[in-house]
Structures are given as C-alpha cells and as structure tokens.
Amino acid sequence: MSPAAYRVITLVTLVSLVFIMVTGAAVRLTGSGLGCSTWPSCEPDSFVPRSASDTHGMIEYGNRVVTALVMLFTVAAVLGAHWRSPRRKDLFRWALGLPVWVLANALVGALVVVLDLSPVSVIGHFLLSLGALWNALVLHHKASEEPAPDGRRRELAIPAVRRACDLLLVAAGLAVVTGTIVTGSGPHAGDETAERLDFVVGEVARIHGISVMLFLGLALLVWRMARVGDAAPSVDARLRALLVVLVAQAGVGYTQYFTGVPAWLVSIHVLGAASVWIAVLRVRLGLSEPVVEPVTTAVAAARTKRPLVVPTDTVPVP
C-alpha cells in the first residue's frame, strides 16, 4: 500500500469517528437511549428490534451498526499500517490504539444501557469518543509527513507559543468537561425516565460559558503572538482555523441556550465540539516538522555503497 492510499484510510477513519459521535447524539436527542433494552442484542430474545415500527429501537440499533462499521475502519487502519510501504513502526503502534478505543467505548455504551442512561456514564461515553478522535488525528498527522532519517524535527514556534498551546489544550478540555455537565443537567436525557445531574442548568451553563470565553481569549492571544512572528505561517493558519470553529461553536451554544435547547441545534453543537477538539489538536501537532535535508553526493554514495567520484576540475576551497 502506498503512503498516499494509507493517508486516505486514516482520514476516512477520522471522519467515521466524528460521524459516530453525531449518530450517538441522535440516539439521545430522539429519546432512543433505551430503545434496546440489552447489549449486544437489542432485546433478550432478539438481536434486532422486534418490529420495524419500533422507531426508538431502530435508531438505537442503527447506531450500533454504525459502531460496527467504525470498528471495521479502525481494523483497516491497522492492516494498512502493516501493509504500507515503506512500513513504519510508529504508524502501526498508533493504529493499534484505534480499535481499542472503539471497543472500550462500545463496552461503556453497554454500561450506559445497563445503568439506564446514567449521566456520568453518558459523559464517559462522550469523553472516550474524544480520546478516539485524538488517536485518529495523531495517526493521520503522522501518516501525512515523512520523518527525517535521523528523527530530527524543526520547531515552528518559540517556546512561549508552545507553552501557550499546551494551555490551549487544557482550556479546551475544561470547556468540554463543563459542557458535558451542562448536558447531563439539562433536557435530552435519551429517555423520559433517565436521571439528571443535580445541578441548576443556568448556573452550570454560566460556568461553561466562562470557560469557553477563557478558551477564546487564550486562542486570540496565541494567534496574536503567531501574527507578530513568534510562529511559522502554518501555525498561524491553524490558529485561525481554530478561532473560526470556536467562535461558531460559541454562537451555536448561546443560540441553543436562549432558544430552549432545540434538539437539532444540540446535534450541531456535538459536531462543533468534535471540530473544536480536532482544531486545537491540529494546532499542537503543527508546532514542529521533520527536518528533511537534501541528500548530498557523499551521503548518496554511502547509501548505495558506491565510491564517491570527485570531478578532476574541482578546486579545493580553503
């Protein structure tokens, strides 16, 4: 398998992991969280819903089918890393993590059903999905670049920017966690009988909003540092992409809050959360690049074990 073909596999796998997050949200937003009463079968005496007219059961079962397809994509990423030419051990190791994440999340999904959509279990389900996204993005990033023969990398930002980007990851994590608490306290539990976190939605939403504003302020600060020359243009471009998706996500969040949290906006907000997470990870991953130097005549001769022929008319330089 060529490196270009393998990059396509890693990209498709990444997209599928985002897609499963949206379909998982659809299960909750349609009240289908307990559409199947058991796992892995849908009902104790049936692997699939008993009737096609069982809307909740079909939605929950459909999400499980999508999960199985995503697992196949992750297996394809592992096999592709093995068949890729030239073969790279780092890609194979990162690819191995993908089916582990998906299987772990499937087991947590089963626990969600057993615990009747406990908010804590649902939050864990979502955070594991973000972990899988991280793994898939790192794999795709590494598959998109060829490492230097000696492993050297060139820094594309000064140390202050790099430290600030580390803080961006912390801020993103804080915004995500507070957002899950808002979700666990608000409507759209996945079933009318599901319990909710014992928080006032308005108060936790305010805390979440503050965390998002801090995140946005820090992103603007880092972008300003990159704009004045403290980072390469590629870092500046990734920061601008982060700002675009972050502002859009904040806009969706405030809109859904002031419009009564409609289900269709919540699904967009879930997609936005995945997009913000990917954008901030891309910023961090883009802070260095492999040092690829042109191969000199001497190095080429050494690699091919051929004698180095120096032109007779070459004049030595003192």
Give a written overview of the molecule:
A two-stranded antiparallel sheet has the order 1-2. The chain is mostly helical. It starts with a helix and ends in a 14-residue tail after the last helix. Helix content is 69%, strand content 2%. Helix 1 runs antiparallel to helix 2 and helix 3 runs antiparallel to helix 4 (119-143). The chain contains nine helices and two strands, in the order H-H-H-H-E-H-H-H-H-E-H. The chain has helices spanning 3-29, 55-83, 89-114, 119-143, 159-185, 201-230, 233-258, 263-285, 297-304; strands at residues 153-155, 288-290.
Distinctive features:
2 strands, 318 residues, disordered C terminus, mainly alpha
Helix content: 55-70%
* SSE sequence, one letter per element: HHHHEHHHHEH
Give me the Rg, rounded: 24 Å
SSE class: mainly alpha
Query: What oligomeric state do these chains adopt?
Result: single chain
Q: Report the end-to-end length measured between terminal Cα atoms.
A: 49 Å
Summarize the structure.
With 318 residues, the protein is mostly helical.
